[in-house]
What does this fold into?
Amino acid sequence: MSSALWLIAMIAGTAAIVWGAERFAEHLADASKRLGVTTFALAILLAGAEPEELATVVTASARDVGGVAFGDVIGANAAIVTIALGVGAWIVTIPFGHSIQRYAAGGLITGILATTFMWDGSLARTEGAILVIAYVVFVAVIWLSERRPPSLGEAGELDEAADPEGRVGSDLAWVLAGLVALTLGSMVLVEGVRQLTDIESTQTRLGLTVVGFATAFELVVLAFSASRHGVTEAVIAGVIGSYAYNMTMSLGVGALVAPISISDAGVLHAPLIGMLALLAVAIVLGVRRGRLDRRDAVVLFAGYPVFVLIALR
It folds into this structure.
C-alpha cells in the first residue's frame, strides 16, 4: 500500500477508536445494571479505564514498535491534562477539593514511577508487572478512601441513569462491538504509523503527537459532554484516572506482552518531563483556588502546543 492509502487507513482507524469508545461508554451502564454488577466493576472486567490506550500500547509492543508505545502514552497524557481538562474547565468551573488534590498527586506519582522505568528507553516485563501492581494499589487506596468503587477513567460518566428496560444481550453486544472497534482501530493506527516510516525517531514523534492525541480524543469528547451537563466529577476523575491508567496498566500490560524498547532514549526525556510538568501545573492551578475555571483553562490549552513543540524538537 502507498503512503496515501496508509494515511487513509490511519484516519479510518482513528474513527474506529472514537466510534468504539462511544459505543462502549454508551451501553456499559445499562449492561452492568442488568447484569447486577456495578458499572465500575464491569468496566474494569472488560477493558479498564482506557481500552483504546491499552489496545494501542499492546499492539505496538507486540509488533516491536516501541516508539509508538512510549510516545502514545506520553502524548495522550499531555493531551488529556491540557485539552480534555481545559475543555471541561472552560465550560464549567471544576471543584478541586482536598480529595481530588490527593488523587491527582497519586496520579503524578504513577507518572514519576513510570518515567523512572522508561528513562533508559526500555521497559522490561518485571517493570511492567510493578506498574500493573501500582495501578491496583492506586485504585485500592481510592476505594478505601471513598468507601465505594471510585469512578476512574471514562467510567465516571457511566454511573448516570440507565434505562431499566431492555435486554442485557443487546447492551453486551454493543459493548463488545465497541471493544472490537477499539482494538481493530488501534491495530490499523499503529500499523499505519509503522508503514509511513521505518525511522524509529519519527515513529516516536508520531506517537507523541498524532497517535497520542487520537487515543486521547475520546476523553476530550467525554470532558465536553460531562461538563456541559454539569457532571464535573466525571471530568476530573477521567483525567486523573486515565493519566494513572496510561502510566501503569497500559504500559505495564504492554511490557508483559513483550518488553518495550527504543534505541535512542534521549528522544523521550524532554516529552516525559513535559508530561509530568503539565499535570504538576494543573495541580498547582487547582490547589491555588480550590477549583479550575476559564482562566485556568487558558493556561492548560497553552501547555499543549508547547508540549508538541518539545516532542517535535
